[in-house]
Write a structure and sequence with these properties.
18 helices; Beta-galactosidase, Chain A, domain 5; 9-stranded antiparallel sheet; Glycosyltransferase; Immunoglobulin-like
Length: about 750
Amino acid sequence: MDYCSQILRYDQPADDWNKALPVGNGRIGAMVFGMPLCERIQLNEDSIWSGGFRERNNPSALPNLQKVRELLFDEKIPEAESIVLDAFCGTPTNQRHYMPLGDMTVIHYKDSEAEFKYRSLDLETAVCTCEYSINDCDFKREVFVSQPDQVMVLHIAASKPDGINVRISLDGRDDYFDSNSPVGENNLLFYGGCGSEDGINFAAYVKVLNKGGKVYPYGNYIVCEGCGEITILLGAQTSFRHNDYKGQAIYDVDCAAEKSYEQLKAKHIKDYQSYYKRCEISLEDNSGGASSLTTDKRLENIRGGGSDNKLMELYFNFGRYLMISGSREGTLPLNLQGIWNQDMWPAWGSKYTVNINTEMNYWPAEVCNLSELHTPLFDHIERMRPNGRVTAKKMYNCRGFVCHHNTDIWGDTAPQDLWMPATQWPMGAAWLCLHIWEHYKFTLDKDFLAEKYQTIREAAEFFTDFLIKDKKGRLVTCPSVSPENTYITEKGSQGALCIGPSMDSQILYELFTAVIESAQILQRDEAFAGKLSSMREKLPKPEIGKYGQIKEWAEDYDEAEPGHRHISQLFALHPGDIISVRKAPQLAEAARATLERRLSHGGGHTGWSRAWIINHWARLLDGEKLYENIIALLSNSTSTNMFDMHPPFQIDGNFGATAGICESLLQSENNEILLLPALPKAWKSGSFRGLMARGGFEVSCRWENGEMQSAVIRSLKGEKCRVVAEEKYKIYCNETAVSAEYSDGAYTFETECGALYCVK
């Protein structure tokens, strides 16, 4: 890969958190500022949250459910919303929130001036580097977080054998910790709790290893004096995973300390690259030299109207980097900020917002060949499931399990906040469970499907009790909302609470289909699958409204905000596949009208919303609109360190745009593979390798002058393959032509497990 698509590089230290560089191992996260004299490493651990589990289900919901439904059918919206805000809200209103671990500081205490050289983040090695000099002594600082050794490693090397004179400390949680003192000649122990009796306690342990000079405690510092090289190891653990969390943090560090710095680094890189090297894209450089600039200047170039395909390639690689660094097997899933948050009270609690944001975090997981990194989300669904059963029974007297628009570390499923456009939305578990089905569709892992079948069944079972008939005899959700929008009735009144918003019906169609097809694959549960099949036919279908758009609500209401950031009615286009250019062209045109209407009224003003729009344009096979919106994302919603900005920082836009870039190059919905379906003209020539398609296929492709030259499809499961391509192409296996049927613009052919099939 090219240097300009692998390295984030800057010629100034970070003077702001949104300029610092992220490192992580899925559990421990750190933001590296690259300050030469006084380095700040802002720290996180994924299980440090504000308190213990709360039973928040409102006992007043069930006695008022029928009354709310009647009021909604009578279009007495304010009265229904008033009851819901009192009787359906969580008690207390809020779930627990994510919190930082603290800060590590490394201070050159004898010096007051330094010459800064550069700082960088190498996406190929997941190592953050900073170089500077003090009094003619050169320093190189490297930081990474090792998944194999479960520690953060900070290494400083000086060009003089006695050049390092630093103080190391841990702090940065205001008063929310108990101790940060040395516990030996070269060790610090930092520990505390998160503010409640049954909450989460944490500990961080630091050990400093030196070559030359001496190391000793001084106040709350560990001092390194006259050293030529030092390695700082930090371990962090919490009571969420370990009763002896202090002992475990110490154990992690002591085990790592038995290895040399070179061994720790080599082991870290080998582990990281086992994921990172699985896929790549390559776009020709059209920057006219801008790709050689520092990353911040490359972003400025884009904002000024310049071109830089390699910056888009870098953005794609950065998204994969964030997933590998932020979501590993056995960790918690990525929240609103992944594992990178500096605020004790972060925006929206940095929780799991499941009316799109958490789901968007995992859109690239399967297609980018990172399937194992999807598993923390599945684990969290299981954490939610018992709580969701209680919420379903207490609030609605329904079987199965339900979750509203947020959840937290404990899998809380009761409504969150007191904000009507979002709070009363019962579809969170349903949407999350579609990720289980997506994982199966990519991997065809029947053991996994058998293990998770009961989970998706329970999510569907809730709606067999919850759905009611509307005035047209359709099965609809009630009460619900269309996240997070507000409508205007023909009489001019405004409301959010409603009957049967379009997104709900689209999610349910996908969920019922997932359970029906899973039951058939596993040859079980025939009666329940039959019931769902009957109910699925009675769900509202996507409809075209008065503006030629896909209707957002069951009635053709106007939006209070025509440029709203959520485009919930296009769930059926992406991530669903009910609407497609090939399968449903009229609905696809209405989806286009929906996007154009949203954008003409200022839509896409948040980073994650723009990322969703990129995926929508990809599904509409419009490479030029896709490219235009990638430019808008880089210009308006990307910070200096390449983080997505809502604003503030939300990591979902990074992952959503990474997925959108994949969608431009490869799609595989509706049981067929589309090669280069939304290729922008600016991406004139290029290639990709190792992207995944549903059905158990790994795909590589090369194109020149906007036209595919060849593609290679590796069959991992020996399933039948269907590829959309012009009839001029042929299918080969080992240079032998393959018998393939051509119909409706696509080739269909049988495959053998492990075999390579070339389209050329």
